[in-house]
Amino acid sequence: MDEKLDMSHRCALAAQKTNCILGHIKRSVGSRSREVILPLCSALVTPHLESHVQLWSPQHRKDMELLERIQRRATTVIRGMEHLSCEERLRDLGLFRLENRRLRGDLIAAFQYLKRAYRKDGENYFSRACCDRTRSDGFKLREGRFRLDTRKKFFTVRVVRHWNRLPRKVVEAPSLETLKTRLDGALSNLIQLKMSLLTAGGLD
């Protein structure tokens, strides 16, 4: 990051490295089948786009789009996907957009801090919201107010709003594996709703 805590340089490095890896895959691998390309991208491309992403998550739309282009390029390598739109390719392959995968990773990390492996640290990073409603799930977090936009994009701040919107059965998951399963269902429903609204012209 630079002196203004901007992550654009880190995003550019990640895009450059993954583009090179994709180029090597296209030149070195003869098969274009889903069974070959998808595992290769999961093992060699995705880690560079998601490793420690809670720290360097892109802050600007241009950086998000830069990384999304990597995934779009990777899916077009697979035979039979060329004629489909990006959303159709992702749906057919069972993948989320990188933006949604980052959100999923944020929520999983928050669960770890609040309830599992890093619970003691979570007490320092997050504050529970005081709520007297009987139907509250007991895991609502307090949203802080900050003057700087940069601070609002830090992991411990940006994840709070999304965590508080999760269904009760998700945040009360008894294990990490159960959380992932329930979270994937909740995110899939949210994405389908968003796409329906976009199709109907309900969102800009």
Textual characterization of the structure:
The protein has 204 residues and is mainly alpha-helical. It folds into two domains: 8-95, no CATH class; 101-200, no CATH class. It has twelve helices and no strands. It has helices at 8-28, 34-44, 46-50, 53-56, 61-76, 86-93, 98-115, 119-125, 149-152, 155-164, 168-171, 176-200. Helix 1 packs antiparallel against helix 2 (34-44), helix 1 packs parallel to helix 5 and helix 7 (98-115) packs across helix 8.
Please outline the helices and strands.
Blueprint: H1 8-28, H2 34-44, H3 46-50, H4 53-56, H5 61-76, H6 86-93, H7 98-115, H8 119-125, H9 149-152, H10 155-164, H11 168-171, H12 176-200
List keywords for this structure.
2 domains, 0% strand, mainly alpha, 204 residues
Structure described in brief:
With 204 residues, this protein is mostly helical. The chain has helices at 8-28, 34-44, 46-50, 53-56, 61-76, 86-93, 98-115, 119-125, 149-152, 155-164, 168-171, 176-200. The chain is globular.
Number of strands: 0
Which spans of ≥5 residues are poorly predicted at pLDDT below 50? none
Q: How large is the share of residues in beta strands?
A: under 5%
Biggest sheet descriptor: none
Estimated structural class? mainly alpha
* Anisotropy-based shape: globular
* N-C termini distance: 31 Å
Mean pLDDT: 81
Q: In percent, how helical is the residue content?
A: 55-70%
Number of individual domains: 2
How do the helices and strands follow one another from N- to C-terminus?
A: HHHHHHHHHHHH
In DSSP terms (H or I, runs of 4 or more residues), the helix count works out at: 12
What Rg do the Cα atoms give? 19 Å
